[in-house]
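User: Sequence in, structure out. Go.
Assistant: Echoing your sequence, followed by the structure tokens.
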Amino acid sequence: MTMQGNSVPASIWSNVEGIAYGGDYNPEQWPVNVRLEDLELMKEAGVTFLSVGIFSWALLEPSEGQYNFGWLDEVMDNLAAHGIKVALATATAAPPAWLVRRHPEILPVTADGSVLGPGSRRHYTPSSAVYRRYASGITRVIAERYKNHPALALWHVDNELGCHVSEFYGAEDAAAFRAWLERRYGSIDALNSAWGTAFWSQNYGSFEEILPPGVAPSTLNPGQQLDFQRFNSWALMDYYRELVAVLREVTPGIPATTNLMASSATKALDYFDWAKDLDVIANDHYLVAGDPERHIELAFSADLTRGIAGGDPWILMEHSTSAVNWQPRNQPKLPGEMLRNSLAHVARGADAVMFFQWRQSFAGSEKFHSAMVPHGGRDTRVWREVVGLGAALKRLAPVRGSRVESRVAIVFDYEAWWASEIDSKPSEDVRYLDLLRAFHRSLFLRGVSVDMVHPSAPLEAYDLVLVCTLYAVSDADASNIAAAASAGATVLVTYFSGIVDQNDHVRLGGYPGAFRDLLGIRVEEFHPLSAGSQLKLSDGGVSSIWSEHVHLAGAEAVQTFAEYPLEGVPSLTRHTAGSGTAWYLATFPDHDGIEALVDRLLAESGVAPAAAADAGVELVRRRADSGGSYLFAINHTRSHAAVEAVGIDLLTGSAFAGTVEAGSVAVIAED
């Protein structure tokens, strides 16, 4: 890679051709003869890009200051000779045993005071000055050694930060938390005001009196809990920045990233905040095998990843060829499912497809986790599908750099997720993601693409904006959402949105606080439903989870509750806002209710599916700056499916005949 003379790194996409393909490569687990065989197999599979050295610190530095780089030199040289580019890791995701023995204070401490020991991975706290010193040291040694290596294309910093342990309660963590709070608030009086410490005699006289919110007799201060979430996200990010600073100094032209875990299961880190410090967004995603709609969850997570990337191309850093090893029942992927999964990520913006891992381990905790080269070797379905995927991705090279086309936005905010699920809320059944996923699912099944956007993101490009359970919102972000409606968009806001500000202080004067004027309503009181109960609605449908006493203040009632004590009270309203409209949903409709509402919103906003197709076909369009477009049609059924599209199927090289075979994929370069 050509080194640049300034501190701005080159784009990873300038150094990797086509849709990059590969995975985590752990050659330290294998003898030389196997590593040489790997090179031939990589050529057969079409591998172009590998992550190397993620968990290799103990082998690279077997004792303090004593290094063994011979094996890694050989691997890097061989990969370069075969034209394979490398995301080289800082090797810091698992401290070596000698470091733990010498400095046990680096180990993470849990809320109850337990120390998490070695023998696994991720056994350090990011606030440990000692650990940071050693981690920066090995990062510098690796960077200096390989800074001019022709295989080096990207720095892979640490690994899955926040995985396994994402909250830290040790003495250094507490000191770092206090320092973070002092920087955030400036004075203890400002903190007391933000946390509402007049309640329960929690007032602080100095920052030194503050501890992380550990185990206590009753519920903890919600402002303290929310700030601790923010702090832990920042602490891991600050650790990442320290390692990147070393890499920038030694290799200013090489981009850096770390693999996020953006999905419906990961809430610990604010990835929208992280995005500004990553040169390219990279994500790990694994299916839940027992979920019959796991392909829809994949789409949700990929859309979220693309949103974190601001719509730019991103790297699928890890997923699995077949079964994983950490679920209660680790079922293999079905025939063709790995191809569908991989191309679904590409459809939603990934320009690199990678797996954990290249060769399936014969020992260790993840020996039953699938890999590109399985235990059974080349004479296996998995290997044949790996080779087939490599060929398919090569044919999709023209797609690289194009962007997903979407006219619908779903607002997503990690801070609102954190704040809405802190204890002492009106109902434990209100979960942040439930409505987001319900609306996303409905749009997915219609072939309508969705962008996941932060509430501060520009919204003028969208005709439909969905704001679900945005419990905490700033004045500026609420105004941004209102401006979208005023400019002509159809905006839907759901219950438990706009209730508090960023300090978790209730917005007085009636719910939904920040959105009252936009929506033309006022909510007097919440009426959460009993567990498992339902409430009849005026259109004959039913709802669950939530209801509330809504008063009209300019809006019209589109639907009402039909049962005591809220009979006749609006459950769905519509209000004209500038050139657009603002809808309010005061309950959680059943499946038919969600579908009917989505139909109304799409009709009003003028949003249509990417194409007409039979049920069960996932549809996404990517459009290039040149104007060319690529329609991905992924058939998740076991029957042939019709899709109305005209063009060349890049996967076959032939004119698209209007049918996608059962369980197969078409990528149509449209006429």
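User: And one key feature?
Assistant: Residues 12-166+239-399 form a domain with the TIM Barrel fold (CATH 3.20.20.80).
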